[in-house]
Amino acid sequence: MSHFMRAAVVLLLAGLIVASGGAASHAADAAKLALVIGNAKYPDNEFVLSDAANDAQAVAEELKRDGFVVDRQSNLTADAMRQALDRFYARIERGAVALIFFDGFGIQSNRQTYLLPVDAQIWTEPDVSRDGFSLDAILAEMNTRGAAIKIALIDASRGNPFERRFRRYSAGLAPAIAPGNSLILYSAALGAVVANSKTDRSLFVAELLREMRAPNISAEQALTNTKNGVVAATNREQVPWLSSSLTTEFSFAGLVAGPPDTKGADPAQTKPDQQKQVCEAPQAEPAPSPDDLAKDPVIADLTRKIAANANDAVSRYKRGQVYAIKRAYAFAIQDFDVVIRRDPRDAEALNNRCWTRAATGDLQGALADCNLALQSNPGLSDAFDSRGLVNLKLGRTAEAVKDYTDAIQRNPRSSSSLFGRGIATRRSGGDGATDIAQAKSMNPNIAKEFAGYGVTECIP
């Protein structure tokens, strides 16, 4: 079963004013450099990330007021992003404060976070490291070039269309392995994504800008306050991740007379509100029209390749995936049919047709496909996940729980398998709340995704 995650990854790079004594007494005079990237227009995404563009501009303006030399860029291709990073590295002097802000899509692979250019072509996991830019590598290069303080502000914890194309991935972002004297803030917890949004501004950036402007607090405290503000505003549904190895005191807005503003205790220590909603029945998103599909640039490109070479099974399989992600299930099944006729043992194609058939209600056909996929590849976690959906819709809750458990053993970070197991457990008379809550923390859109399959938390 594919993972339907909408939204977007935004990396924020902000500048800091050093205000410490001792060995760092001259740090305030060091160069302050920032690279601000707002990638909003990804052809693979359904809509432009307006908040990424607007927030990048707002952050760049704030950093300039704080005395940073700012290079603001938008909608960078891989070549343009590489050039922007090279310019950024070349300007770093020994002892400088170097800050990178990225707003766009990010993805984790092999326990690293990668920032994605707008022209990334990602269909399998190896493509992530080929087309993406490793945050770990960026921080390491900043350190190698002599930056005394390294800062990365990342609002990229969005579900994105690339993640839905290959199944063996972990949602959200991975922890950064940063050099000493670094400060890193993600907009959401590790392995979690924020709910899809088409707004013009990001809550995370709004909180960040307010705290950056607050006088008489350290940058680390400002980011802690940012985290606490987001947690409070979202009723703990979004919990930013903060990592600091700073040994130098510095401030965004500078130090003035008066006591520091600590803004209260960490809301993680406060008692959460009692949950009021037990059963949710979100509305599934409508399927796109044929005109919308015809205008999709990815589908159009794959269609051209298929027209040029009718035997191009790879393009046919990819187009089937895109159709399925966009809920154009009939078109998806047609493409998977062609791929499977050419190779009846193609476990991935069989699995994809299985969950597509399950979404359309062809449960017996879906069950046959999943069983064939597992015969071809007995360890395919995605096929256990897909068969779990089939059994859940068939009312075979015990079999569904077993399938989802087998999938989770192979991929513990699958929000789909966790949510499905929670629903199956609930329908079996058990609780299931822990699985459901964990799945929602990883993917706030998971309930809507399952609604598209005809499955809700409500007990029938």
Question: How do you describe this structure in short?
Answer:
The chain has 460 residues and is of the alpha/beta class. The protein has helices spanning 50-65, 78-91, 126-131, 135-144, 203-213, 219-233, 290-295, 297-308, 313-325, 329-342, 347-360, 363-376, 381-394, 397-410, 415-427, 433-442, 446-452; strands at residues 11-12, 17-18, 32-38, 69-74, 97-103, 106-109, 112-115, 133-134, 149-155, 182-186, 241-244, 250-251. The protein has 17 helices and twelve strands.
Q: What does this 3D model show about the protein?
A:
InterPro entries: Caspase-like_dom_sf (IPR029030), Caspase-related_regulators (IPR052039), Pept_C14_caspase (IPR011600), Pept_C14_p20 (IPR001309), TPR-like_helical_dom_sf (IPR011990), TPR_rpt (IPR019734). Residues 257-295, 412-431 are annotated as: Disordered. GO terms for molecular function: cysteine-type endopeptidase activity. The protein has 460 residues and is an alpha/beta fold. It has two domains: 11-257, Rossmann fold (3-Layer(aba) Sandwich); 290-452, Serine Threonine Protein Phosphatase 5, Tetratricopeptide repeat (Alpha Horseshoe), CATH 1.25.40.10. 44% of the residues lie in helices and 11% in strands. It is built from 17 helices and twelve strands. Strands 1, 3, 4, 5, 9, 10 and 11 form a seven-stranded mixed sheet that branches. A three-stranded antiparallel sheet has the order 6-7-8. A hairpin with a 2-residue loop joins β6 (106-109) and β7.
